[in-house]
TrEMBL record, chain A:
Protein name: Xanthine dehydrogenase family protein molybdopterin-binding subunit
Stored InterPro entries: Ald_Oxase/Xan_DH_a/b, Ald_Oxase/Xan_DH_a/b_sf, Ald_Oxase/xanthine_DH-like, AldOxase/xan_DH_MoCoBD1, AldOxase/xan_DH_MoCoBD2, AldOxase/xan_DH_Mopterin-bd_sf
Highest taxon listed in the record's lineage: Bacteria
Entry's Gene Ontology molecular function annotations: iron ion binding; oxidoreductase activity
Keyword terms of this UniProt record: Molybdenum, Oxidoreductase
Domain Aldehyde oxidase/xanthine dehydrogenase a/b hammerhead: 31-149
TM ranges: none
Any Pfam family: Ald_Xan_dh_C
UniProtKB/TrEMBL annotation, chain B:
Gene Ontology MF terms: FAD binding; oxidoreductase activity
SUPFAM superfamilies reported for this sequence: CO dehydrogenase flavoprotein C-terminal domain-like, FAD-binding/transporter-associated domain-like
Domain FAD-binding PCMH-type: 1-223
Protein name: Xanthine dehydrogenase family protein subunit M
Species of origin: Hymenobacter nivis
Pfam families per UniProt: CO_deh_flav_C, FAD_binding_5
InterPro entries: CO_DH_flav_C (IPR005107), CO_DH_flav_C_dom_sf (IPR036683), Diverse_Substr_Oxidored (IPR051312), FAD-bd_PCMH (IPR016166), FAD-bd_PCMH-like_sf (IPR036318), FAD-bd_PCMH_sub1 (IPR016167), FAD-bd_PCMH_sub2 (IPR016169), Mopterin_DH_FAD-bd (IPR002346)
Domain of life: Bacteria
Keywords (A to Z) from UniProt: FAD, Flavoprotein
């Protein structure tokens, strides 16, 4: 705890931070007062757009018959590639990509030509005075696409595999080889070789993506968009439209979930803006649930082969990973499964390669722990295999390979409490009572098994700004162009701001979700809490420094002529560090100076922790080399423990007990943090047991693009989850020592389930999701 | 969704009359099947005739057995104490279906007439012989993992009825009361109500145009009282069956006196298995007997690539259901 004093320059009074404050936006949400992006219905002359999409996955638009649709009441426009206004730039060129920025995920923009590359690709937009009129007219519109034979996936016999970047055996994205992995594997006394597959998954947040575009002048645009990042979206739209960024405003006050699919900019947002330009009125577009399967990316269908070589004692000697997955016609997207494989365990030799196949699908995208989630399924299942093969307890084998430094970079960890996670998880779960042999525990018809797996997620590169305005009357407004996906950002940043300002949380109004506020990163990559909190902290520092300067120059202040460095701020009182009785409240100082308010501005930066000396003020140019937290590797860690009951005759699997222990740096609010872990584990159990989008192998169109047939877990699938956090202080990751916990809980989850199934049945399931048909097939095989 | 007009009927005659005048019109009860299909442009009735006010109500024991009005809601029937105690499989099949919200809306008549969940049928972008006769059946070589293996044809392999209740109704010899535009009523056993796809998968049942389902009657019997419905699915609730079994047994002194068996999820229609019943009656209530019955039930199955597992799963499901009812 002695790091605490260094933590806030003004000594911390962590009153609100760390408390299980209920959501400050909870009331607005349950009463319906919270306004989501599709709910700005007051805009003058607002009209409705409906997207007409292609039935077929490949072909050309050969005819458009709009005559019947035109005649429908209320129809204002029917826009196709022939008459939709063109964007100034698209991401298809390098120059366009630079202008559009980080938010672009799919470089292709539909409705620019007659070509169709995927089922569900927009081929027309119908605008009408009401949604119903637009829908009806869209149904009457005939767009004929002359079909050609599509490629459905990497498994399609027509698919051609290639190495992204054109380099044969190139390292997989984000990983570097080390040692001579193939030779080390060949010589290893213990070996595990296994292939894993992962079905296509879709994010399916509750709130479908929605955009309202309002051109307030010919060159000034406001967009209400369901996005995880208003600053990114602002930059992207300015790039597409060729407008300066200040002429584009993006607003997202509330978001009904995202899981990654609302991180990038997708065509529907741009098309809505172009449509609004064409009709000269504000236009609203809300994607339908089926369209959510073909408009905002997905986790790609993939196959990975992992080879582990180890000593007889279970020490890893070699790790070789190969991944094959499906991508779109234009983009070489593959989530980097191997990044976590290279850093999780001590292992001298490592190699990872990626192969892609172009298919007639849209570009995949980040989905909660992109790479780490499927990667950990392979690694943590294979580690379990190795443990059984060598007769070592699964927790023990992980401890034997515990990495005291990051094996992929050789850097020391900024902090790592994985051992504590294993220990506490095992204790909470009762792991010591585990039967070391599999297939031996029965409960009536059921086979009962226990499994565990490691979780890890990086602290990703991120920075962003904040503004804090403190009023003399003891209220404050705090502003960041952040978004709250429903995760609790409103709440935790209110807590942070309250403590930074020495105020009660109800005296602080935290504003987010508007690109006119200080620019920041997206809420994604588990970066939000750390970035926003650190920027608010540095903004408060800036504000206190201003007030301190004022005080020491004010002849009427008890602090007159003190050195600013000798002054501390304690709960809003400026006082001498050496003599706390000498000082005054900020309100007194401000009133004397006739100030109604004072503002501070700050930048939060990844790697700018209090030990790296970067915690105060905006980053300077000489900080560049310290971006990684003074040469540290920064990751959150965790462990999952799982019990399943398998019905060997009916093939059903129930998760009946679950423990997750996570070490994620400072936990700003244990209640919202716990919900994040519950959500992550639940999503992971979904991927493990039921989630899959099925693409027809011949027509390359999804057959279950709805929530009745795309199964996500229901309450009955999820037991009471036990979630705990390890108290962890990280002086490097960022000013508040927050690692972020949005994604870590899905990592390792599928493996924990699979490992428990193996313990229960003696059968290893390597094909996600582990549905009853696969359980039956496995049960018919000898152990 | 198309534009449509909407009228409410308070008497059967009024409802059937509307459909006589406008054969393209559709009855709407709870709307949980119909509206989904309309929103997906799979059916475009110009007129909806609301039949929720028709007096097809009541859950009562009659001399012919349990009579359930077609307008009763799934939840009301599933929770009814008489149904629970005397016809447990009926209650179980209803309460294991859909979600509480849907069950509060959905009617018994509508349940019997629900449509297949075949993904190709449910998306107008695909060809589908059932929806557009002659357009082809992509499911044959595509996603058929939850389609049927019994009673299928090369034209269609869908489980035309994907739900639960009718599986129990088929097992327990239930009889539907139907009424046509002339006000004439007829009785049709559930086992004769549904049609196999053959070359005309678009024709799913014997209902005449405009004919209404008035009620369903389930004969009282020892095997009805000792009955169960077992449903296997990909998540614990709110999912259609991969395979299900409705069974009723009358076991005396360890010997099976009468047996009723139907399977769900695996048949082109709710699959009554008289073969299985034959293998059970007169035999000792043992696992060996149940396995023989299960094998008999799946004789003649025509599995495809993705649904081959159902042959084994359906047998195991049936064996388990029989064990549960027999208490062995
Ligand atoms: C997400 C989802 C999950 C589901 N899961 C299950 C499940 O697990 N198990 C299950 O069994 N079912 C399930 N269902 C189906 C549900 O049970 C049916 O949708 C419901 O029973 C239909 O009843 P309804 O009154 O809403 O019918 P409606 O939609 O009103 O009508 C359906 C059809 O029947 C006709 N019709 C209705 N009543 C009569 C009548 N008396 N006479 C003549 N024609 C009539 C209508 O014209 C229409 O064509 C599910 C449905 C959904 C949407
Ligand atoms: S199985 Fe039947 S319902 Fe499904 S696509 Fe084929 S014809 Fe249509």
């Amino acid at each position: 705890m002695d790091t605490e004093t260094a933590f806030f320059e003004t000594p911390p009074q962590l009153v609100a931070v760390g408390q299980p404050l209920s959501r400050v936006d909870g009331r607005a949400k349950v009463t319906g007062a919270a306004k989501y992006s599709a709910e700005y219905n007051h805009l003058p002359g607002l009209v409705h757009a409906v997207v007409k999409t292609s039935d077929v996955a490949k072909g050309r638009v050969t005819s458009i018959d709009a005559s019947a649709a035109q005649r429908e009441p209320g129809v204002l426009a029917i826009l196709t590639h022939q008459n939709l206004p063109k964007p100034a730039k698209t991401a298809e060129t390098k120059e366009g990509q630079e202008a559009i920025g980080m938010a672009v995920q799919m470089t292709f923009m539909p409705l620019q030509s007659d070509q169709v590359f995927y089922a569900g690709q927009p081929v027309a937009i119908v605008v009408a005075d009401t949604l119903e009129h637009a829908q009806h007219a869209a149904a009457k519109l005939r767009v004929t696409v002359t079909p050609e034979a599509p490629v459905a996936s990497y498994q399609d016999p027509k698919a051609k595999l290639f190495n992204p970047g054109g380099k044969p055996d190139a390292d997989a994205e984000g990983t570097k080889r080390r040692g001579k992995a193939a030779a080390a594997f060949a010589a290893a006394p213990a070996q595990v070789t296994a292939t894993y597959t992962h079905a296509t998954n879709h994010h399916n947040p509750m709130e479908p993506s929605a955009t309202i575009a309002h051109w307030e002048a010919a060159d000034r645009l406001t967009v209400y968009d369901a996005t995880q990042g208003v600053s990114w979206q602002q930059r992207a739209l300015s790039g597409y439209l060729g407008l300066p960024q200040d002429q584009v405003r993006v607003i997202t006050k509330y978001l009904g979930g995202g899981f990654g699919c609302k991180g990038p900019i997708w065509p529907h947002s741009v098309l809505t803006v172009l449509t609004a330009k064409a009709v000269g009125r504000p236009v609203k577009l809300v994607l339908t649930r089926p369209q959510m399967f073909t408009s905002v990316g997905h986790r790609e269908d993939q196959e990975q082969t992992l080879r582990l070589g180890a000593t007889k004692e279970g020490k890893l000697l070699a790790l070789l990973h190969e991944k094959t997955s499906t991508t779109s016609q234009w983009d070489d997207y593959a989530e980097s499964n191997s990044k976590m494989m290279g850093m999780l365990y001590q292992c001298p030799a490592f190699e990872a390669t990626t192969k892609l196949a172009r298919a007639n699908v849209m570009t995949p995208t980040w989905m909660r722990a992109p790479g780490e989630a499927p990667g950990s399924f392979a690694l943590e299942s294979s580690m379990d295999d190795l443990a059984y093969q060598l007769g070592i307890d699964p927790v023990q084998i992980r401890l034997r390979n515990y990495a005291d430094k990051d094996p992929s970079t050789g850097k020391p960890w900024s902090s790592k409490s994985l051992k504590e996670c294993y220990e506490r998880g095992a204790e909470l779960f009762g792991w010591s009572k585990r039967n070391p042999k599999n297939g031996l525990t029965r409960d009536g018809k059921y086979l009962v098994g226990w499994g565990m797996a490691t979780a890890t997620y990086p602290v990703n590169n991120s920075q962003g700004n904040a503004r804090v305005r403190l009023y003399a009357d003891g209220h404050a407004v705090v502003q960041v162009a952040a978004t709250d996906l429903g995760t609790g950002t409103y709440t935790v940043i209110t807590q942070v701001a309250a403590d930074c300002l020495g105020l009660a949380p109800d005296k602080v109004r935290f504003e987010l979700g508007d690109s006119v506020l200080p620019t920041t990163n997206i809420s994604g990559g588990s970066m939000g809490a750390g970035t926003f909190a650190s920027s608010v902290y540095t903004a408060a520092q800036d504000l206190w420094q201003k007030l301190t300067k004022m005080a020491v120059m004010d002849a009427k202040s008890p602090l007159f002529r003190a050195k600013p460095a000798d002054v501390a701020v304690v709960k809003g009182r400026l006082q001498l560090k050496a003599n706390p009785s000498k000082g005054e409240e900020f309100a007194a100082l401000m009133k004397r100076g006739n100030m109604t308010d004072v503002e501070g501005f700050g930048q939060g930066k990844y790697g700018a922790g209090y030990e790296t000396g970067l915690a105060t003020g905006p980053a300077k140019s000489d900080d560049a080399g310290k971006e990684d937290g003074g040469g540290h590797a920064m990751h959150a860690f965790g462990a999952h423990f799982c019990e399943v009951r398998v019905d060997p005759e009916l093939g059903t699997i129930r998760v009946t007990k679950w423990v997750s222990v996570v070490a994620g740096g400072r936990i700003l609010n244990p209640k919202t943090a716990r919900s994040q872990v519950i959500g992550g584990a639940t999503m992971g159990i979904g991927a493990a047991l039921m989630e899959q989008t099925v693409r027809d192998p011949n027509l390359a169109r999804y057959t279950n693009a709805n929530l009745a047939d795309y199964h996500v877990p229901v309450n009955a699938d999820i037991p009471d989850l036990t979630v705990e956090f390890i108290d962890e202080h990280d002086p490097y990751v960022n000013a508040l020592g927050v690692k972020g916990i949005g994604e870590i809980a899905i990592v390792g989850t599928a493996a924990a389930v699979g490992n428990a199934i193996f313990h229960a049945t003696g059968r290893r399931l390597r094909d996600l999701p582990m549905t009853p048909n696969k359980v039956l097939a496995a049960m018919s095989q000898p152990v | 969704m198309n534009n449509f007009s909407y009228t409410q009927a308070t008497a059967a005659k009024e409802a059937t009359g509307r459909l006589k005048d406008q054969p393209q019109a559709a009855y709407i009860a709870g709307g949980t099947t119909l509206l989904d299909m309309m929103k997906a442009n799979l059916t475009e009735p110009p007129q909806l005739v609301d039949i929720n006010l028709l007096p097809f109500k009541g859950i009562e024991q009659t001399k012919d057995g349990l009579r359930i009005g077609a307008m009763e809601r799934m939840n009301a029937v599933g929770e009814n104490p008489l149904v629970k105690s005397q016809y447990p499989a009926v209650s179980e099949s209803l309460l294991l279906a859909a979600s509480p919200q849907l069950r509060n809306m959905a009617s018994i008549g509508g349940n019997i007439l629900q449509r297949t969940r075949c993904g190709y049928f449910r998306d107008e972008a695909f060809p589908c012989n059932k929806r557009v006769p002659g357009s082809g059946c992509p499911a044959l070589t595509g996603d058929n993992h939850n389609l049927a293996v019994l009673g299928v044809s090369d034209t269609c392999i869908a489980n035309a009825y994907p739900g639960d209740l009718s599986v129990v109704l088929a097992a327990l010899d239930a009889v539907l009361t139907l009424e046509n535009a002339k006000g004439k009523q007829r009785q049709v056993p559930v086992t004769e109500f549904y049609l196999l796809p053959g070359k005309t998968p678009e024709k799913e049942n014997v209902l005449e145009p405009g004919e209404l389902i008035v009620a369903v009657t389930i004969p009282a019997a020892a095997h009805a009282q000792r009955s169960t419905y077992l449903k296997v699915r990909e998540r614990s609730s709110y999912a259609y069956a991969l395979a299900s079994a409705a069974v009723g047994l009358d076991v005396q002194g360890g010997t099976i006196r009468s047996a009723r068996v139907a399977l769900g999820g695996v048949g082109a229609q709710p699959w009554r298995s008289r073969e299985a019943e034959k293998a059970l009656v007169g035999q000792p209530a043992t696992e060996a007997t149940f396995k023989a019955a299960a094998a008999a039930a799946l004789q003649g199955a025509q599995p495809r690539k993705e649904n081959a597992y159902k042959v084994e799963l359906a047998q195991n499901t049936l064996v388990r259901a029989l064990q549960q009812v027999a208490g062995v």
